[in-house]
Design goal:
With 410 residues, the protein is of the alpha/beta class. Helix content is 46%, strand content 17%. It has a ten-stranded mixed β-sheet with strand order 1-2-4-3-5-6-7-8-9-10, sandwiched between helices.
Length: 410
Amino acid sequence: MTTRSTGQSWALDIALAQGGFDALHPEAKGTLELLGHDHTDFDKVFALVKSGAMLPKAWATVAAQAEERAAHHERNGFSRTASDLYERAAVMWGRAQYSIFDAADPRKAAFRERTNHCVERLGVLRDGRVRRVVLDFEGAEIFALLHLPAAVVHGAPAVILGPGMDMIKEDYIHAAERYYTSRGMVALSIEGPGQGESRARGLTVDLGNYERAISRYVDHLASLPEVDPARIGMFGISMSGYWGSRAAATDPRLAALAAFEAVTGDFHTIFERAQPTFKNNYMYMAGYDDEDAFDRDLAARMPLGDLVGQITCPVLYGIGEFDELTPLDQALASFERVRAPKELRVYEDEFHPLGGVAAEVFRFGAEWLQRALDGELAEPGRDVRHYVHRDGRTTDGTARPTWWRSTEQS
């Protein structure tokens, strides 16, 4: 636990008690629905929560209800209804295990077992189109879910779905089917070092091993007959926008990157100014108990800086105007360093979860990636910028907020 996390836990408890999840992440429910959470489940969970300590119990309680209904429908032969409920249960069991930052806690292992069971059942009920992947990686193992289209494909484009630091591979089951496999694309939702099962098995994240894990996943996708090795891209949220940027800069086999909410600025903001749970979680992911050592050995070395200048594939970045983890001026400065064909969208009045535009972001990101992997959007010098207004308008040619430009012109 960090000093801030310990000392300020009361503030987070008050926020949860008074304002629910929105008090921590405004409008995030829209994003979580895209990640497979039914809004009724979400409301039931947070009706039970008055402090952070109550989260594992609440998630587990509602997850068990969804799983029980799923088993009922499976016994009665309603396979699609059952698989959808298993999906809802899986993401909630995943939230329950995530809420425990102790790999040795038996509850974490038990919740993970329920998650895996629900994924196994929905995979069976969906004719094997969701498959568990376990790969050897640097003396350890990394874990993913392979998502295949309903029709048999050969040489199809593939997209790695990268979770943020607060996510796991199961969080993409819904989005993979809705936005990728339905288009005839292959998707691989991953966990890197420090996340999910990988962390539970002892693999921690360091400065460079996450992008090496992404390269290992590229190896796997390239070996599949369903996949065209020349058309493998990545969709990343939050920290996976950061890790995806590092991977795109170091592995030229990534043919496109769409990154939303990417942490592309300094890491002082996310670790010292944002909610203390972010730093607490990342220290757990990295295996640090000593906060000073973490700051010195890892946090100080994490900013992307000029590394993004080494990216060669087309890239898309999207960020909220008031993202809590990356100040907008820093995101703009990082975008300027990218020399590859690039596009930037800044969403007015949005915060880190991009909850108010989540459905648009997920759909657009998938369509953008499909076009990029089909060879479009790669013309040299491509530099597209948009400022997306809250009222539906879009200012083209610049991503700078209108009120910034008004100030600059006065």
